[in-house]
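User: My instructor asked us to take a sequence, write out its structure as tokens, and then describe one feature of it. I'm not sure where to start. Here is the sequence I was given:
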Amino acid sequence: SGVLLLAKKRSALTALHGELRAGRVKKYYLTLVKGKWRSQRQSVRLSLHKYVLASGERRVAVNAAGQEAHTVFELEQAWREFSLLRAELKTGRTHQIRVHLAYLGFPIAGDDKYGDPELNKRLARAGLKRMFLHAGSIGFKHPATGSMLTLDARLPDELQAFLRTLD
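Assistant: Let's start with the prediction itself. The structure tokens for your sequence are:
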């Protein structure tokens, strides 16, 4: 859920790609993870490698031979079993947030690819029917005007409702 950015013109798309490659686009996500996050702010730099399973499914793993990936996590709120994190992408690798968190021992609630299957079953019974990862905000230079533009998407009602069950 969250912000989805589409370009209507090829010129806008290539301009946005340039901004992304240069690291000038600010992307923030909200995610609920299993466990007690230990610090207020943590910078994670772990290289990621893409591979394909025999079934044809694409996967990503932490691997020094992969591409550099950098995520900054900030603790928004903590409960006994869970932590709500704000993730800022400094790079934009496939499944970056999901793989970084799973590798660190904090799988995303509801993540069926890199998460905790038993936890996900329990969460589904408690009302969480999807992965708790939300593209909350993106900031970039408008390709036509050059002015800074920030787009925000509030957390969907079903995710807000699930958070209330944790209180």
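For the description part of your assignment, you could build on this observation: The first strand starts at residue 26 and ends at 34. Try explaining in your own words what that tells you about the chain.
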